[in-house]
């Protein structure tokens, strides 16, 4: 069971994070330093992180002695960091790094932590998690057992070959976690320094979201040689480690994007309370006021779902069922919130004058990554069937 530091202490950290995001980060939302896909350039990210470091809010979910906040405490901090799409980058709580730090903290040896985890925690490096593969190759997506990337032992090294897709942040990353199948059909994970000539970025497709530096790349891995001491954990245990990472990572996405949609609700509410139409403020028109009221309900329900799932994870459970339920409930609720915020603001809602249109795009993507809604529902339905069979046997 994760003890944490206590909710009062966690809330104090969260308050400092929120103050930093609102005062220092939000002004960067109009900064033009973006790549061709609209994502912030590393130059801007590192500039913001310098300010976060000075304010004492860099990687706030990991303490100076290496301890992590428990999941309920992490939630109150990550929600605040998500109040701006740039807040999570500035505070170093973003995907995939936050999930990769969690996995390395759980599974990595002291040597691997020193070499690969330390620069992530310090905010000096970004990372990428190489698991998903192209659909056209019949590779792993929501079903990791379909993995086509292979690894074979060669003396004191492993040789990896394969193709990966939608690898978030690969362009510009310095640390990679590569997942591949061994000859026995088990999965292995390897830590690698990036860039590496054996790992080629084929292309970075344009996607609907634009918050993550490096985009979501398609990757070719050709005869990548990795020393055996760079294997994360034990051979053949990669699928188990993936679950160690994915359950809390799904929940962290819920935390961050809840913060973003809370901010979108603030912006839409301000607009509705100031904008006049047909002789009264928009908020006083039932159709508009009810949308904001429904948003308030969805936001509170999402917050409660996150807190419930975090509590389960804090018992030491992998929480795969609970994180699936949270992923579905929160992502769908936030999609409704973001959509209504755009609708309340009308023409202004579809412009880049505020972050509302970006939140709509980001949350639409969130409904897919780390498992689409339908995959999680299917998994839950299978569990319901198993439980019924056991109960009626």
From TrEMBL:
Q: Which UniProt keywords apply?
A: FAD, Flavoprotein, Oxidoreductase
One Gene Ontology biological process:
fatty acid beta-oxidation using acyl-CoA dehydrogenase
Q: Output the Pfam families linked to this UniProt entry.
A: Acyl-CoA_dh_1, Acyl-CoA_dh_M, Acyl-CoA_dh_N
Annotated Acyl-CoA dehydrogenase/oxidase N-terminal domain residues: 11-124
Domain Acyl-CoA dehydrogenase/oxidase C-terminal: from-to ranges:
236-383
> At the top level of its lineage, which domain of life is listed?
Bacteria
Gene Ontology MF annotations? acyl-CoA dehydrogenase activity; flavin adenine dinucleotide binding
Of the GO CC terms on this record, one is: cytoplasm
Q: Which SUPFAM superfamilies match?
A: Acyl-CoA dehydrogenase C-terminal domain-like, Acyl-CoA dehydrogenase NM domain-like
Q: Where would one find coiled-coil regions in this protein? A: none
Question: Which residues are in the Acyl-CoA oxidase/dehydrogenase middle domain?
Answer: 128-204
InterPro entries from the entry? Acyl-CoA_dehydrogenase, Acyl-CoA_Oxase/DH_mid-dom, Acyl-CoA_Oxase/DH_mid-dom_sf, AcylCo_DH-like_C, AcylCo_DH/oxidase_C, AcylCoA_DH/ox_N, AcylCoA_DH/ox_N_sf, AcylCoA_DH/oxidase_NM_dom_sf
Q: What are the required cofactors?
A: FAD
Where does the record locate the signal sequence feature? none
Q: Which Gene3D superfamilies match?
A: Acyl-CoA dehydrogenase/oxidase, N-terminal domain, Butyryl-CoA Dehydrogenase, subunit A, domain 2, Butyryl-CoA Dehydrogenase, subunit A, domain 3
Task: Note the subunit structure.
Answer: Homodimer.
Q: Which family does it belong to?
A: Belongs to the acyl-CoA dehydrogenase family.
Q: Which PANTHER family match?
A: ACYL-COA DEHYDROGENASE FAMILY MEMBER 11 (PTHR48083:SF13), MEDIUM-CHAIN SPECIFIC ACYL-COA DEHYDROGENASE, MITOCHONDRIAL-RELATED (PTHR48083)
- The identity of this protein, by name, is Acyl-CoA dehydrogenase-like protein
């Amino acid at each position: 069971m994760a003890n944490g530091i206590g909710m009062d202490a966690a809330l104090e950290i969260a308050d400092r994070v929120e103050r930093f995001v609102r005062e220092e980060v939000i002004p960067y939302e109009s900064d033009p330093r973006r790549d061709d896909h609209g994502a912030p350039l590393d130059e801007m990210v590192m500039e913001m992180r310098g300010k976060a470091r000075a304010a004492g809010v860099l990687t706030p979910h990991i303490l100076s002695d290496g301890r992590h906040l428990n999941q309920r405490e992490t939630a109150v901090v990550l929600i605040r960091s998500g109040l701006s799409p740039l807040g999570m980058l500035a505070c170093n709580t973003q995907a995939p790094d936050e999930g990769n730090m969690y996995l390395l903290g759980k599974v990595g040896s002291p040597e691997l932590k020193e070499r690969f985890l330390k620069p992530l925690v310090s905010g000096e490096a970004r990372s990428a998690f190489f698991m998903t593969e192209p659909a056209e190759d019949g590779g792993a997506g929501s079903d990791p057992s379909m993995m086509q990337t292979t690894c074979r032992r060669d003396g004191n090294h492993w040789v990896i070959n394969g193709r990966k897709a939608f690898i978030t942040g690969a362009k510009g990353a310095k640390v990679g976690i590569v997942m591949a199948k061994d000859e026995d059909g088990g999965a292995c994970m390897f830590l690698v320094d990036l860039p590496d000539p054996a790992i080629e970025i084929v292309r970075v497709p344009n996607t609907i979201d634009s918050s993550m530096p490096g985009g979501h790349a398609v990757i070719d891995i050709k005869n990548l040689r990795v020393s055996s001491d760079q294997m994360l954990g034990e051979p053949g245990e990669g699928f188990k480690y993936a679950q160690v990472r994915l359950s809390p990572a799904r929940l962290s996405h819920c935390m961050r994007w809840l913060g973003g949609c809370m901010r979108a609700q603030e912006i839409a509410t301000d607009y509705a309370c100031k904008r006049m139409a047909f002789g009264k403020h928009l908020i006083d028109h039932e159709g508009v006021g009810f949308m904001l009221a429904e948003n308030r309900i969805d936001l509170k329900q999402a917050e409660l779902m996150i807190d419930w799932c975090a509590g389960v994870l804090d018992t030491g459970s992998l929480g795969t069922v609970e994180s699936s339920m949270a992923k579905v409930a929160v992502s769908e609720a936030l999609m409704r919130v973001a959509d209504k915020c755009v609708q309340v603001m009308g023409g202004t809602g579809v412009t880049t004058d505020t972050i509302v249109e970006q939140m709509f795009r980001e949350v639409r993507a969130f409904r897919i990554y780390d498992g689409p809604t339908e995959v999680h529902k299917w998994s839950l339905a299978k569990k319901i069937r198993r439980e019924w069979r056991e109960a009626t046997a």
